[in-house]
Amino acid sequence: MSNLNYKTKKEIIIENAYRDPFLKIEDLAELADTTSKYVRTILSDANVSLMELRKEYARRIEEKKYCPSDRIILNYLSKASLFKKKNFSSSEVLYINNPLDVNNIAGQIQRNFFYQSYCLKVKKSTWGLASVFLDKRYFQEQEALSFEALLEIFNESLDGKELEISNLDIIVDLATEQISSHLGIENFSPLIRIKQNLLLKGEIVVLFLLYFDARKISFSLSHNGGITIKRRDYSI
User: pTM for the whole thing?
Assistant: First the structure.
């Protein structure tokens, strides 16, 4: 039996404190599966003050250092230690669990969009799948882009444009055969589906679909709009 939840409690506490300083001590304790007393000890030993981190966050907002592109889910995930760019490998498979996942571009997919797909692996185990649809009118169609190249292309192409970034649409669904086979899970196992659109002048130009094995990953949203990602305790 091996446990894939290999981060220490200290690492989880410090990482999440910096990622979202508006989390309470109790929230950090829950994320690290420990006590509030232990969280306070870790923060004190590391000389980390949630109050100071919150002030710094407020200063960045006031100075307009906040970059809107950080709201794009792939940009955000690529900065998390679990989702290192090297962990994403390109795939020729189009990952769609449910036709409704692409219902808002269904009538335009073949005519206006091309796709790139990626498999997320951690220690040779598949943890997630991603499909990205890009509008041919704004992006030059290419094959087998690396994950890093994809990020560079859509960030450069959309830089300076009046981009509308949708909120994240997160649901728990049941895995259908295609997705379950690639994730290595049973059909109808719980699946986390994340969807986000990028729009220009009210039209979708990029659509992100991400699927995660709900046994391995959990997401929580904070009151300030931040995302906290946690490995779930899961042994194989």
Answer: 0.69
